[in-house]
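Exercise: predict the fold of this chain.
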Amino acid sequence: MARQMPLTCSGHTRPVVDLTFSPVTPDGVFIISACKDGKPILRNGVTGDWVGTFEGHKGAVWGATINDSALLCATGAADFSARVWDAVTGDVKHCYEHPHIVKAVDFSKDSTKLLTGCNDKNIRCWDVEKPDQEVVKLSGHTGAPKKAMFGVNESEVISGGDDKTLRVWDIRSGKEVKSIALDASLTSMERSADEKVLTTTHGSTVSFWDAKTLEKVKDKKMDAPAYTASLHPDKKTFVWGGLDNMLHVVDYETCDQVEEYKGHFGPVHCVQYSPDGEVYASGSEDGTVRLWQTRVGTEYGLWKFANGKGTTDSKSATGAEGAGTPTA
């Protein structure tokens, strides 16, 4: 049986706190990572190879996303700003000033609107081409929002954070339409590839919700604090990471763990499956982004196998220490 050989993507110098894959584009798949070193990095989403570094923030970058065409990236940072970047040239297109740290960013489907979550407890929606003033401000959180995204219906916004709530807003009226109490602060939020399931983490719990109604589908309490989780595009498994430094792969239907892997040397802050589901990327307190195979032993990207032995071949992304240890 082939062993898990994650690719370690170096380049950051401090903890990696957020990452996002692009959809499949004519130019390939990309991944952007946010780091406390203040320099978000864009990489090839298949190989992990460095594409470019966005320079300009003057503080830790807490959130990063990429639009559907992979031509624009957005970041939120401790310098009280969000920025939209040209993903081809690396230039800043627009800077959106805030009164406090920005931790969440999200593009609308058509990339004409930018959503930001700020430590002043407000969610803001901006016209991407008009950074001078927000279009809508959504007020009601009693703690800093950590995540915010447009809903399946883009007239809605979903957010959550330190006040231990998950909230839904009508962006047309600026009013809150639903609030759900959680057992702990929300640490991650992701919508599935088919846009039907919302995955969240809070405390030691991974929860799954109907993405349209926000009715809970199921949840699972883990053995360690869970900081992040991602549902595979086929919805057969999900992966989560957290305080124990491990990546855990779990059967979605039964919620039984099927694999766990070592590799990171610090808590795992973010994880996400690639759009084709062949790999998942993780970012950690150890300052690295790592790519892991979903189907261990399959030739894909930089993973090559001969006589059942795996190798990786790259100058910028190398195999990590710590073999995978499948568990029954």
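Check your answer against the key: The chain has no helices and 32 strands.
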